[in-house]
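One-letter codes give the sequence; backbone shape is given numerically. An example follows:

. . .
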Amino acid sequence: MSGADKDLAQTFYTDFQASRTDLTKRLDDLKERVTPATDGVNDLALDVAKLRKVFIDAREYLPTYDQRQYENFLKLMEQSVEELRATSASKPKFVFQRKTNKGKEAIALTSSVKMDAQASQTTDLDSPATLTKEESTSTHVALNGYFNSYLSWSSLPSPTSAATDVAVSDLTRCVVNFLSEGPDVPTRVVSALHARNLVDTVLLLPRIAGSALLHDLANCVIVLGCHQFRMHTSSNVRIHLAIQSNPIIEHCSSISFAGYPSSLQGGHITPDSKHLSVQDFSHIRATPSPNWSALPDEKNMLDEEWESLAKVRSDEEVVATLWHVLPLSKEHET
């Protein structure tokens, strides 16, 4: 390890220990309550997810033993947060049941989204709403705050309109599959996507009618087709894209782009896709941007690997699957 890496590792250790003390104290305070406040639990979950993102970004200079210690603490915190969610008695803004064959309890979604189809518009991730599976009156749906989970259309309310705006946020080590799950599952048209605070997560989407806005992603794989694509403050993300306008990134690093996987095309080919005509708003110069690159063929997944990924259907399959497909995991394999 170089002297510079040792300094970085020591700085990270000091900052991590401070965060660890704060998170542990907040966790203990919530555990002492008979019914932990939902807002307190959600705030804790968000800060744990942020700490994991910082950890992911620092892996390249951290000793292997230290990485295991940090990982063990984060896993313990994530499990504790999930246990607190289960004991929280606060009324959720969203309540709906998964399909009975999943054998799951009711799931509470705590945020909604009001998204514009234009990428330049500002998006409000915390706008309040009321939505149930039986009485959906909005086309805006959200997935928020999951760890080690498989998520799909079955995780959302039944469709009430031809198109749906989807928001996903605060996910850690998840596989989100919005491709078709078969003839028995209703097919939806996604009109817009907004993603925020995703760590170690795979997001699979078909072609969507509008824009995709992504913020604060770390060590993720994104597959989609869209009219407009914009991503901010993200790192170590692999994007497989079908698009006919120029993708935009800003305040990003270690981003790689490739075309939409042919094995997931479903017979719909996007001619002249501009997934490699990326505009980096943080590098407005004549020289190539150092923040993104074309994904080399040898690092791309084979057709059978994409097909296997698309067939994941349970929480139990998620962890093993992610190890083989996430950008940093694949670097360690090589």
Residues 89-138 have pLDDT under 50 and may be disordered. The longest helix spans residues 3-31. The two ends are 19 Å apart (CA to CA).
